[in-house]
Design goal:
heterodimer; A: about 120 residues; alpha+beta; 3-stranded antiparallel beta sheet; two-stranded antiparallel ribbon; about 20% strand; B: about 475 residues; alpha/beta; Sulfate adenylyltransferase; 2 domains; 7-stranded mixed beta sheet; globular; disordered N terminus; binds zinc ion
């Protein structure tokens, strides 16, 4: 079974893929309130991801969730670098580096500046 | 009741509903506020410091103080303390106490061989249970007996062989509720508990602490709800939860339920959960900012280390909320579930036709000494771009277009610092998350939060001197 990783696009991320072949793959969800790219992940590779991050899980939609922010950032970086959604192998090559960053995330994630 | 006050339904006269009686007939209230009575009860008792149940690596997964609180303040009525071996056997065999009333889970004060030896306690003795170094509760020992914790764990949740109606996989060490029982000590001290030094809840728990007796009074005389539907939660609400609450509340009798009682389960946490503080204030934001008026919506909590027992847990939820004064209870798919141990619809199967292997030939509200609360079994809500709204799965025909709500998807968004669009989460609910994120430097439960919670619990106890016997 194929699983998925959803990459949320805020304004700045959208700017980075605008005009590239990726732009037409952007999905609009929740009545246009949110833009997202969906990366397909074959089962053997999703297993690798679940093993790398102890809290990662597949949700009821088949999406790989509860992964570290560093992992999501790496997915987006590879999409931009390769102008493609077929990047999961490139992300997996970076796993040790991502796991190192993820450790720091357990202590602190900067809160957003609202109000 | 006057026939004029009844409506004809299905050939039977159906009266307008009223707040049901407490489960077992009477609310348990075993809390002594007056110092001199409390001191005289504790004088000369054998002291015992309550300890958490832990995983082999030392991680706390349960603290019996939460059960003592829920018993003594009446949430678990008619249970009055740590169960005798006869009660335990009844619960494991057919989810009934020795007196016949339905009750789903073993409630036990378990102690290690070492502690039991040091205590040198026998039937008839009085124990003084201490929490955070202070006197907390007393109990008169009725029975001391041995259990096989693994057997208790297995029989509590069931097996695919013994409970083929709903159990799909054998329970194992990955299931948090199973581990709570499996890691218990093998000696049980049974007896009724009485709190003699009522703990004080910290901010913001104190604002949401509404034990059954007071909750019933508030429902009846302050909110003036004749009917009220309970919503189970251990999550910050997204708009899917809000839609569930609003729509489920359309049930009632001659009119929709007057009130919605949110009751959060507060207990042992796992990394990645939302902090308790954000859960309570997130739900509060739903009424504070008018998405469901405060005159119709109220947020409360119960102390309990969730067992994730799906249909078994739903029985406890029904009992708690009936005791709090609710007429109805909403049950969704995968109610109080983790993993694939139970059928997705196990809870709804229990409440629509019963599960004989668990002791229910009929739904729990249709058996003798069963519950009086009425189930409202709900299917799913999703966002439908064609309907242009949050749609009920049994209404919306655009199944291939559905966009499901996913709590973990939202957590991912929050962690990345993206404010969820208001169609998925109300901005004020998100602000409640951010408020506590700034306090804990983290949006979710992490190691530090757990260490802090496990050391301090949800309460503080005032110092109390016990006179020597
Ligand atoms: Zn639709």
């Amino acid at each position: 079974m194929v699983h998925y990783i959803g990459v949320i696009l805020d304004e700045s991320r959208y700017e980075q893929i605008k005009g590239t072949p990726i732009e037409e793959k952007v999905q609009s969800i929740f009545g246009g309130a949110l833009k997202m790219l969906v990366v397909e992940v074959p089962e053997d590779k999703s297993e690798q991801i679940l093993k790398a991050f102890d809290r990662a899980r597949i949700d009821s939609r088949g999406f790989i969730e509860d992964v570290p922010v560093a992992f999501r950032r790496a997915v987006f970086e590879e999409i931009v670098k390769n102008k493609s959604l077929d990047i999961i192998d490139k992300v997996l090559e970076r796993l040790p580096e991502i796991q190192e960053l993820a450790k720091k995330e357990d202590e602190y994630i900067p809160p957003p500046e609202i109000e | 009741m006057s026939v004029l006050r009844m409506i004809l339904k299905g050939g039977e006269l159906m009266p307008k509903l009223n707040i049901p009686p407490p489960h077992g007939g009477e609310l348990v209230n075993r809390v002594i506020e007056k110092r001199d009575y409390a001191e005289s009860m504790a004088a000369g008792a054998i002291e015992f410091d309550l300890k958490p149940t832990t995983l082999p690596d030392g991680t706390p997964i349960r603290h019996v103080y939460r059960e003592i609180m829920s018993v003594c303040y009446g949430f678990f009525s008619p249970v009055e303390g740590s169960m005798t071996s006869a009660d335990l056997e009844g619960v494991l065999k057919e989810r009934r106490l020795e007196n016949g009333w339905v009750f789903p889970y073993p409630i036990l004060l378990d102690v290690s061989d070492e502690d039991l030896k040091a205590l040198d306690v026998k039937e008839g003795d009085r124990l003084l249970l201490k929490l955070k170094g202070q006197p907390f509760a007393v109990m008169d020992v009725e029975e001391i007996y041995k259990i096989n914790p693994e057997e208790v764990a297995t029989r509590t949740f069931g097996t695919p062989e013994d409970n083929p109606e709903v159990v799909r996989e054998p329970f194992n060490e990955k299931h948090p509720g199973y581990m709570i029982y499996k890691m218990m000590n093998s000696n049980v001290i049974a007896g009724k508990w009485t709190i003699i030094n009522p703990p004080k809840f910290r901010e913001p728990y104190d604002r949401f602490w509404l034990p059954p007796a007071e909750c019933r009074t508030v429902i009846k005389y302050v909110k003036k709800w004749r009917t009220c539907i309970a919503h189970q939660t251990r999550n910050v609400p997204h708009t899917g939860h809000e839609a569930l609450m609003k729509n489920a509340a359309y049930t009632g009798d001659i009119e929709p339920c007057h009130g919605i009682l949110v009751n959060a389960i507060i207990g042992a946490k796992r990394r990645g959960d939302y902090p308790n503080e954000a859960i309570l204030e997130g739900h509060e934001a739903v009424n504070k900012y008018g998405y469901i008026k405060p005159s119709r919506h109220m947020v409360t909590f119960t102390l309990w280390d969730m067992r994730y027992g799906n249909p078994i847990e739903s029985l406890l939820h029904g009992i708690i909320r009936q005791n709090m004064g609710c007429t109805h209870h909403m049950f969704g798919r995968d109610h109080a579930a983790v993993g694939e141990y139970y059928d997705k619809y196990a809870t709804q199967i229990l409440w629509s036709k019963g599960i004989p292997s668990f002791g229910f030939e009929a739904p729990p509200n249709e058996v003798e000494k069963g519950l009086k609360i009425i189930p409202q079994n709900m299917a799913e809500f999703w966002y439908c771009p064609v309907c242009g709204e949050i749609a009920y799965s049994e209404n919306c025909g655009h199944v291939d277009k559905k966009q499901k709500f996913s709590g973990s998807f939202l957590r991912g968004m929050v962690a990345e610092g993206v404010m969820p669009p208001k169609v998925v989460m109300r901005p004020e609910v998100y602000k409640a998350i951010v408020k506590w994120w700034k306090v804990f430097n983290y949006p979710f439960v992490n190691k530090k939060y757990l260490e802090n919670l496990n050391a301090n619990l949800e309460v503080n106890l005032e110092p109390m001197e016990i006179p020597k016997a």
